[in-house]
């Protein structure tokens, strides 16, 4: 037994010396040499089969001790070599952190799109779905389905860009309303939709008007929809956009596709209704038009105005943005001036 002990001790001493290599491949070779299936440790364990129980127990403990010490030495040396490699790599790849960093120019969402996203999120929180329609619209959906026949004088209110006698660049997003109603039935009530998009009109290109602008329309059809529902929605929208202390005012107006129709004003945030240059000394600022959906519009799209009703509201995105951010010239939105756009990074 003493001879076997001596051989194991010599084996351990030799292994501990060979472990101190500076090469990862050599270290792995040492591990396989001593701890592999054909190594001396495995051979020593096989020799225990012919021993007496007491001798086998004592020798087995010694073999396990030697095996554990060799394995620990290999692991410790492996860690030392890996740390040395990392230190060498750091030394070779020195980074001078005193150099000035590169200025990364990040973009931002256009202010008009920010307003669209904000209003869309507001209506989505109330259960509305977003919808889109074609910008080149037919006269049928742009006018006739909205209670505007060929000889209707209200067509003069929306001087249009015609592509051909039957198609034009849409003058409002209300065509989406007509298309939506046409594709739904009373069994699918309530219908709650918001439709943002670009619209086009022959308009003066001055500080407050443009031939192309963005519009958002929201509408709902269900049973027992009244002006009270419309006013509550308008009040919530005004406070969401301009502040929790804002009030609204409804003034009678005319739109062919709503009856009754109203212009909606919001109390001036600058003077709080007292009168200033922003609100032209009135205390109120006009923000959008709205009304209950005209019975003719419901009838033309297959709904019975005796059973269902609804409201619609439409606003110019540029106007909302100009009021919200104090912008005086609508043309700033379209000239891609970074000095202007960088103010809206968020």
What descriptors fit this protein?
2 domains; BirA Bifunctional Protein, domain 2; alpha+beta; 3-stranded antiparallel β-sheet; 11 helices; single chain; elongated; about 350 residues
Structural overview:
This protein is an alpha+beta fold and 346 residues long. It has two domains: 2-92; 111-344, Bira Bifunctional Protein, Domain 2 (BirA Bifunctional Protein, domain 2). Helices cover 40% and strands 20% of the residues. The chain is built from eleven helices and ten strands. It has helices at residues 2-19, 24-35, 40-46, 53-92, 111-124, 139-142, 174-183, 227-242, 295-300, 317-325, 338-341; strands at residues 129-130, 136-138, 161-164, 167-169, 191-200, 212-222, 248-255, 258-267, 284-293, 309-316. The strands form two sheets. Strands 1-5-6-10-9-8-7 form a seven-stranded mixed β-sheet, sandwiched between helices. The chain has a three-stranded antiparallel β-sheet with strand order 2-4-3. Strand 7 (248-255) and strand 8 (258-267) form a beta hairpin. The protein is elongated and about 120 Å long. The relative contact order is 0.10. The mean pLDDT is 83.
